[in-house]
Amino acid sequence: MANEDFLSNSCHNAVTVEHKLPKICTPRFLTSEKTFYHILPFLLAVHEVNQNSRLLPNITLGYNIYQNFVNARMTYEAMLDVLSTGQENIPNYRCGRQKNLLAILEEMNSELFDHISNVLSIYKIPQINYSVINQMAEQNHRFTFSYRMTPNQEPPYSAIVQLLLQFQWTWIGLLSQDNERGEKFKRRLEVLALKNGICTVISGTVPELHTFLRNFQNQNNSRDGISFDENGVPVGDFDIMHWTSVRNKSDEGVKIGSCPDDQYSNKKRDQCVPKSVTFLSYEESLGLILTFLAIALSLTTAFILGIFIKHQETPIVKANNRELTYVLGVSLLFSFLTSLLFIGRPMKMTCLFRQTIFSIVFSVAVSSLLAKTVMVVVAFLATKPGSMMRKWLGKGLAHSIVLSCSGIQVGICMTWMGIFPSFPDSDFHSQPEHILLQCNEGSVTMFYTALGYMGFLAAICFLVTFLARNLPGTFNEAKLITFSMLVFCSVWISFVPSYLSTKGKYMVAVQIFSILASSLGLLGCIFVPKCYIITLRPDINTKE
Fold this sequence. Notes:
InterPro entries: ANF_lig-bd_rcpt, GPCR_3, GPCR_3_C, GPCR_3_Ca_sens_rcpt-rel, GPCR_3_CS, Peripla_BP_I
Low-confidence stretches: 11-30
CATH superfamily of the largest domain: Rhodopsin 7-helix transmembrane proteins
GO molecular function: G protein-coupled receptor activity
Number of strands: 17
Structural class: alpha/beta
Radius of gyration: 47 Å
Protein name: Vomeronasal type-2 receptor 26-like
Subcellular location: Cell membrane
GO cellular component, one term: plasma membrane
């Protein structure tokens, strides 16, 4: 009856009462609850027919129940036993009591259905099936003695096509089950639809419960979460109690699970080891080298400023606006010293001020260069007769440019500190064996806004100096400023991808190197040529 059993139905004439009792050939036939429910109605029907003499007078129905264990060999053995009446399974050999085998009632899968039909068709014994067997509908010439008790399971293809034509739907999509029956449905309907001028635009399958099971999440009786990954494998984020027996017969528990965030598993995977704390310190070689460079460049800048102050009355110092030169030199000195805030253990105050001080100091330096260039252009235009630019000559314009351009950066940094202040943070996950101490910038948007504003000032300064590079003047700095802005922009453009691709102390080292390199570029392009003239070529340091 079920996928594991089938029944042979036989007929006896004028049998005694004892022969009316059923004969069960296999004591283990009730292998499932479903099988039991299927057999009970059959037993009741046979019993009612045999008890009512008016239904089949002088005829008693009997049956044998066989189990095949969903196996072809067991199925053939059962069929030979049905066809044989002696002790041995010998077909066509009749000895003993004659029994008229009427039919075989079974529910089988497609493979075992073929095995039963191949044997029964030889003896022209009817095979009655109440399940859905696709071969019966497609290969009627093979199963001439097979009868299906269920209605036709084929979809009404013609009716579906007529319905589509009724609504004038000529562009359709087909979805079917992800199995053989679904593929057969799509194949037949597509052919019939195409004959009637209907085009199938989309053809797909519905994977039943597979997607749901892959994304299954639930809770067990202990209210712990249960989930699976995209491959259907349970996520191993749970504790396992492993019990092992020792010599004194006692049990020793070993708890297996994830290590805390500040620890990692050793190579043997038998204990958790504390992670080492890393940051860019003054003791290690990288921090020591960067510290030495910052201090050396700061002293160099201070020495150059001393030379300019000592020779402030010389033509080369006067010609290039002494006040702006001093502002630029001091801002470069502070920019070198600012890099020291990035070295050492991140603290609340250093994290809060290091980026803002760096941004403001650099904005002052670039604004000074922009003011120097604008003053050169204004001075050249003021030499023309009747020019309105003469009223702009003076310290007021230069100071206004420096204060306004730097003031915008101060506003950005104050907003950054007030709304998204930086703070010390610990990264436990970037490196498995280390805890990275670093400053969390609070807002990545504000960080790149401040950096982008410096780039904007550098681009404006580069554009103005490039246009003014050919203006006359013995000490015209336009060409030097143009080259210094090229160095500045090149350093900070390369900084962005390098900064994003590193973590921990190396990310800090990248920013320190960018600060030192860009500041050194400004110092070398603006001050070194003038120092050369002041100290080594005083003969050309004249008004002529």
